[in-house]
Design goal:
mainly alpha, two-stranded antiparallel sheet, 2% strand
């Protein structure tokens, strides 16, 4: 469990950094991205776990990149429509991006997600395995439960506020 909590937090935090950096670079202002109060964007975490579908196969980086581009594009498009249906709010747009797909995704962002996927499989995923083996089991359990409780609490508070 520790491994997946660790990966959820890191993928979500990297997603938050990417989102904040993108807004800063493109529009020159800080925007605390995502729906949580924590610096975690859960869609990146969920997207990273979706990419674990490829884990059972040992894919070369090019095939991994290409499959991640397809998976993340479809996931981003679907998530955009689902979140808008649930919250009656559009959380992001790519209307000013090159190669925009229905203003809800972009081939540019999909390529970036593909690169992130390669880094995830060849960096974060093996690192989480090493850490989870080295940290004592009781510590892993305590950390996992605590972090999960904090994230779930933030999620409940954030979703409740969005639904109002």
């Amino acid at each position: 469990m520790f491994r997946y909590v660790f990966e959820f937090v890191v993928a979500g935090f990297v997603g938050w950094i990417y989102e904040v950096a993108t807004v800063w670079i493109m529009w020159h202002y800080f925007s605390n991205r995502g729906i949580l109060h924590l610096p975690i964007v859960p869609i990146y975490s969920v997207g990273a776990f979706l990419l674990l579908i490829n884990k059972k196969k040992k894919l070369n980086p090019v095939i991994l990149f290409l499959s991640a581009v397809v998976i993340t594009t479809v996931f981003e498009l679907g998530s955009s429509y689902l979140l808008e249906f649930i919250f009656h709010k559009q959380f992001w747009t790519y209307e000013t991006w090159w190669f925009s797909i229905l203003d809800r995704s972009s081939l540019v962002s999909s390529a970036i997600f593909g690169l992130m996927a390669v880094l995830y499989f060849y960096g974060l995923h093996p690192l989480s395995e090493k850490i989870s083996r080295k940290v004592p089991k009781k510590v892993c359990i305590i950390i996992s439960i605590t972090v999960t409780a904090v994230i779930l609490t933030d999620l409940i508070i954030s979703v409740t506020a969005l639904l109002r």
